[in-house]
């Protein structure tokens, strides 16, 4: 792949700037038809993209196929939303005036995306941008440029005009980012990644007063109440926690379970976690692939060691997986920790690995307080058969996404995003296209 720098990035912005007038002036139906063709192209190359994603990112092939479908769904959804960008006519305060409100594209935009969902994190940004009439420069994670490149080929084949979408790959992230942030022609930055980098981008974007959308770190709690169906709850926890080897910003990071069912629930989780197959993602029977890099493995090992030192019990896992030819990789066994406490790293930081800590509670208010005791606020989950409790707790949780008896709530038509230090703005659904539109007020005098 090309290792681009600041000058390459400026050329990409040049191309996006040149392409913007023609693209933004296309009627909505034209843009929609092109987005539909991108969806069709992704479906035609679904298997190729999934295998490529597994090879460069590591997630199991079944999960990669699921991500390709999820990623493509954003093009399908926003092909329709392109036709629903409405303005308003407002009653004027005098008979010789008319007030119109127009919705127009922001202009040239830039997207900086992570490695854990190398297709979906791009399409969730580029599809609404194109639907709104914006052009875009994309900087994918340096660990996963190949999926982005294939996606660009598909968009080109679908008829996305030259310059409307531009890919800049490289290891010099700061040079690329600064070039985007300093260029006044770039009117919006949309970023998915760490809270630390998000804060840096936000500060630098202030110099040119760019719009920003930030989907940042998470530290998702999962509350299991005493009336929960424990088998079903365990299934949801496991699906949420161990997807992509725990390397998702919305995966369960802390489980708070009522003390009356804690032992039983822990046993179910440990039993089911032990069944998960760790290995090379291209093998169809594998559910847990490798972590992305050695530094990620070291963080997981540090979190588990800290928990053990402070009194947590390892019910299963708690070790690297090296047998079966996996000794050269970053594989870690699905791990369940019992009796973790709030002073442990696993409860204070986002582990981003296959480690599941369990913490007991007695009262509903205690569980909510524990869940909210974090600067993050992206996703939270709860399991209960009590409707009143479900409503109370979902309203009390300080999170942008709440799954009630649902550990996998993400979908193209719903708003995705966090509160507190987990970000600004929303992606997905009708809300996602709003991030790429400006509101223009036009007052017309009739005299």
Name the descriptors.
447 residues, alpha/beta, Aldehyde Dehydrogenase, Chain A, domain 2, 6-stranded mixed beta sheet, Aldehyde_DH_dom, Ald_DH_C, succinate-semialdehyde dehydrogenase (NAD+) activity, oxidoreductase
CATH homologous superfamily annotation of the largest domain: Aldehyde Dehydrogenase, Chain A, domain 1
Number of separate domains: 2
What spatial form do the alpha-carbon principal axes imply?
globular
The CATH first-level class of the largest domain comes to Alpha Beta
Q: Count of helical segments?
A: 15
Mean pLDDT score, rounded?
A: 97
Biggest sheet layout: 7 strands, mixed
Give, in spatial order, the strands making up the sheet with the most strands.
Answer: 10-11-12-9-8-13-14
Give the helix proportion (percent range): 40-55%
Tell me what portion of residues adopts beta-strand conformation.
Answer: 15-25%
**Tally of strands:** 16
What class would the helix/strand composition place it in? alpha/beta
Describe the structure.
This protein has 447 residues and is α/β, with parallel strands linked by helices. The protein folds into two domains: 239 residues, Aldehyde Dehydrogenase, Chain A, domain 1 (3-Layer(aba) Sandwich), CATH 3.40.605; 185 residues, Aldehyde Dehydrogenase, Chain A, domain 2 (3-Layer(aba) Sandwich). The protein is built from 15 helices and 16 strands. A seven-stranded mixed beta sheet has the order 10-11-12-9-8-13-14, sandwiched between helices. The longest helix has 21 residues. The model has no long low-confidence stretch (mean pLDDT 97).
């Amino acid at each position: 792949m090309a290792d681009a720098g600041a000058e390459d990035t400026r050329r990409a912005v040049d191309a996006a700037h040149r392409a913007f007038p023609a693209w933004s002036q296309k009627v909505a139906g034209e843009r929609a038809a092109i987005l539909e063709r991108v969806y069709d192209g992704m479906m035609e190359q679904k298997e190729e993209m999934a295998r490529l994603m597994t090879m460069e990112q590591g997630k199991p092939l079944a999960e990669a196929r699921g991500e390709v479908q999820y990623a493509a769904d954003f093009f399908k959804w926003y092909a329709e939303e392109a036709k629903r960008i409405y303005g308003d006519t407002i009653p004027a305060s005098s008979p010789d005036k008319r007030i119109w409100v127009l919705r127009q594209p922001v202009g040239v935009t830039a997207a900086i995306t992570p490695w854990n969902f190398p297709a979906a994190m791009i399409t969730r940004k580029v599809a609404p941008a194109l639907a709104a009439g914006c052009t875009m420069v994309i900087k994918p994670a340096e660990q996963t440029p190949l999926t982005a490149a294939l996606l660009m080929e598909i968009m080109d084949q679908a008829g996305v005009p030259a310059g409307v979408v531009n890919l800049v790959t490289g290891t010099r992230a700061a040079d690329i980012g600064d070039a985007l942030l300093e260029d006044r022609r770039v009117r919006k930055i949309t970023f998915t990644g760490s809270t630390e980098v998000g804060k840096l981008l936000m500060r630098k974007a202030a110099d040119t007063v760019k719009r920003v959308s930030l989907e940042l770190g998470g530290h998702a709690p999962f509350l299991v109440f005493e009336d929960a169906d424990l088998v079903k709850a365990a299934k949801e926890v496991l699906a949420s926690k161990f997807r992509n080897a725990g390397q998702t910003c919305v995966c369960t990071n802390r489980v708070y379970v009522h003390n009356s069912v804690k032992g039983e629930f822990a046993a179910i989780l440990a039993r089911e976690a032990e069944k998960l197959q760790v290995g090379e993602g291209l093998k169809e029977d594998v559910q847990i692939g490798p972590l992305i890099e050695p530094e990620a493995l070291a963080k997981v090992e540090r979190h588990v060691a800290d928990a053990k030192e402070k009194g947590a019990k390892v019910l299963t896992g708690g070790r690297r997986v090296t047998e079966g030819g996996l000794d050269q990789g970053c594989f870690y066994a699905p791990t369940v920790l019992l009796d973790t406490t709030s002073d442990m790293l696993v409860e204070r930081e986002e582990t981003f690995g296959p480690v599941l800590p369990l913490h007991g509670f007695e009262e509903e208010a205690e569980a909510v307080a524990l869940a909210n005791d974090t600067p993050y606020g992206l996703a939270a989950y709860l399991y209960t058969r009590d409707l009143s409790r479900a409503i109370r707790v979902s309203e009390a949780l300080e999170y942008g996404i709440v799954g009630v008896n649902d550990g996998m709530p993400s979908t193209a038509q719903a708003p995705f995003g966090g509160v507190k230090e987990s970000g600004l703005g929303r992606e997905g659904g009708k809300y996602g296209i709003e991030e790429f539109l400006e509101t223009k007020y036009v007052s017309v005098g009739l005299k």
